[in-house]
Write a structure and sequence with these properties.
single chain; alpha+beta; Ribosomal Protein S5, domain 2; Alpha-Beta Plaits; 2 domains; 9 helices; 10 strands
Length: 321
Amino acid sequence: MSAVRQARIRALAKINLALHVLGRRPDGYHELRTIYQTISLADSLEFEYRPSRSTRIEVDCEPPIPDNLVVRAAEAVMEAAHIRGSVGIRLRKCIPAGAGLGGGSSDAAAVLLTLPVLAGRTLSLQELSGLAAQLGSDVPFFLLGGTALGVGRGEEVYPLPDLGRLYCVVVVPELKISTAEAYRSLREKLTPERRPFIIRDFQSAAWAAAMGAPPGDKGSSVGNDFEVLVFERFPELKSLKKRIERLHPVRVGLTGSGSGLFGLFRSRAEWEEASEQFGRVCRVFTERLVSRAEYWSWWRRWLAPHIGDRQSWPPRSRYAQ
């Protein structure tokens, strides 16, 4: 009987430090400009892979998720890498759904990075990115981590310098916002006249991030295009943002199309004060920003028994021929 290969992985969440929508594309998606950032909040995935002549994929998820992206990611990577075997994945969700934190996308990327290593296959970053883009617009970012620029529909990702050590409070009220519905509502307000202003705003955000500063400091118009619409529909979110602003974060905003709000703080004392204030009214996650170097280092540690070259990215399987 073939030996079982196992790995325990953490799939990190993200926030959008800036998010602008330029308009709808001919393919039906929207043209975006965003700045992604990984944070320490994470789901947990446990993998078991056993080589065999037949293929079987079993996912145990708590809580259950219909049409789980993890299953689709496993099917896609096994087909692309010509992997046969029995795959078991145990997923425990900590990243709240419907909050704009990218939990499902991060879980899918974790599958793309892990299964080839356990199965002894080699897929290049280009190949993995192609699979990731088919699964979802945010998925390619989680192959990279850290601070990154996202263009196209968000799937075209370019690294930016990391922002350094900042503390992050994520506040998630008990409501879910449909991404599809948010885009439909935003579409009505997108006009060709707004496009140059959106691009200029985003350019300032990208330059700020490139110089190691959080985009959207006080007095900047850089932010998230979904905020106006979401705050109109859910005024309690606008009130929550104002409460975070009173604590003087270096950056505060909606992530994705919501409903999660984040505040970035330079001091641990401010971070702790914010978490205490909001813990009584909604879910609060006290996290920190995770740099790309740290992200890659964690992945190499998680997969350490199964990788050879510790310097390559994506991680390369020691079982590969």
